[in-house]
Design goal:
Blueprint lengths: L1 H24 L12 H14 L8 H26 L9 H18 L11 H29 L5
Helix pairs in contact: 1-3, 1-5, 2-3, 4-5
Length: 157
């Protein structure tokens, strides 16, 4: 479980860095430029349910990051447990896991709860961005999972 939490945190960080790099390189004439990220929208929904109020604007970036990292930790833990019992989940060095995560989260869950467009209404650029981000997540999760296992479970001879 610890290995998975480490892998999930590192994979979430790698995904976050990719997204920051893409955002820095993106043109400024995107039509959704002013829209609030889904993670910040989710943080507002959670805050409204818990307190009746939205997250203050100054705190939204941090709240959005919390919403990004929390599922990443959970996915990393689930991935590590699954990889231990069903090594086939590591197919493509975590790529299959990344594609599954993108499909279930970005394409299904985000749109199902109203935080994004339905997959058939999203533009191709957005879809590719989501899949690329989650491929990085899957690859980083697998890389860190293997390294963390090697370090934590090293046997002395």
């Amino acid at each position: 479980m610890v290995v998975g939490l480490i892998a999930g945190a590192a994979a979430s960080f790698a995904m976050d860095r990719l997204q920051a790099a893409v955002a820095a390189l993106s043109s400024s004439d995107d039509e959704d430029e002013d829209s609030e990220p889904a993670t910040e929208q989710a943080a507002d929904a959670i805050a409204r349910a818990a307190t009746g109020a939205e997250v203050p604007d100054a705190d939204k970036p941090l709240a959005g990051q919390a919403v990004h990292y929390a599922p990443g930790l959970g996915l990393g833990a689930a991935y590590a447990v699954a990889a231990k019992f069903r090594p086939a989940v590591t197919t493509g060095y975590g790529g299959a896991f990344g594609i599954a995560a993108a499909t279930l989260l970005d394409e299904a869950a985000v749109s199902a709860v109203g935080l994004g467009k339905a997959p058939w209404k999203a533009d191709l650029k957005t879809t590719i961005y989501g899949y690329a981000s989650h491929l990085v997540f899957g690859g980083a999760a697998e890389l860190v999972r293997r390294q963390a296992r090697a370090i934590l479970f090293r046997r002395s001879n």
